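This protein record is not my work; I was only asked to verify it. The record follows directly below this note.
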Amino acid sequence: MVKKIALLGATGSIGGSCFKVVAEQRDHLSISLAAAHSNYSKLCPLALEFGIPTLVFTGIDDTSLQASIRREFPTLRIYFGKDSLLSLLLNEDYKIALNAIGGSNGIEATFAVLSRGKDLALANKESLVMGGHLVKKLQGNAKILPVDSEHSAIFQALGKHPLSEVEKLIITASGGAFRRTPLSDFPAITPQMALKHPNWDMGAKVTLDSATMFNKALEVMEAHWLFDLPYERIDAIIHPQSIIHSMVQYVDGSILAQMSVPDMSLPILYALSFPERWDSEIVQTDLYRLPDLSFEPIAKERYPLFHLGLEVARQGGILPTVMNAAVEAAMKLFLEQKIRFTDIPSLVYRTLSQTMQITDPDLKTILYTNETSYQLTLGYVSH
């Protein structure tokens, strides 16, 4: 039977890898619904090529442009706006949703999918970072299948082992673009420099979060909710080659790792094929051509956002939402060259220091706090 997918974030890097997987696995997969922010010139032709009947663009508000798009692609059912996406997720025919919406914008889609009892292939870290306690309550019998390469690796290495046999999870990190940059050069880092990841082809947000290693703090939070382990049993280390995607250390001293050349197609394929494994030629790893593999700790002076993120994770409540929003806003200011790369941690800390803790926030509170924290951080810099 062909498995129908709702693909959210279809024009981003994860979406592109998903299309590659679906093209190879047409006997197993089809896309029944695809969503993007505004890139209709990319997604509409893909919809015709892959036979996707329904599209939604959440970021196109111009009614004249909406009418023009519908005239240009009359055979497609095209909707606009976030509310349309949430309604479609509650009503359209699909087996599993791949949520690859970037940043905090993806959390409501996660809630819509799970509230309907559908399986979720999750590439949106923020859903668990901001609302992990709510997601776990909402999950029910639906499966949440990790798409981040690190969590996919842990998921595969865990298999059916009980958590009582697990000593700790070990999340690997590339170290980002500035692993070897002298700290004295950090004030001169430009957005163009920060957007060049050494190993992965990712969107701007993930690439920037990798440069600061904030993404690893997010992944630690995500792992906490995905695998029901306390933060004391989740570690992160730098592995510059990005071949080992993460590891599980067991109580007997054994460490199981999942490895491959870096390509997001593989964790996407595994999430969509689970509990099976399907034949694929997309990602092939030649052991003889791999570089030497090395590991090193995550230095606090080089990656302060990672260590601040761990402190925030342990405190929980509303603070992860506040920090994530502050980082998103600070990154925007950095990309607009209104602040320096080295200003980002201080702006984030400033927002956190002005926050009153809420230990068990509901979704409405999370969304409101996310927006107010974002605007508060932007407001530190005159425009």
Observations:
- DSSP finds 15 helices and eleven strands in the chain.
- Residues 9 and 101 are 4 Å apart (CA to CA).
- The two ends are 55 Å apart (CA to CA).
- The longest strand covers residues 29-36.
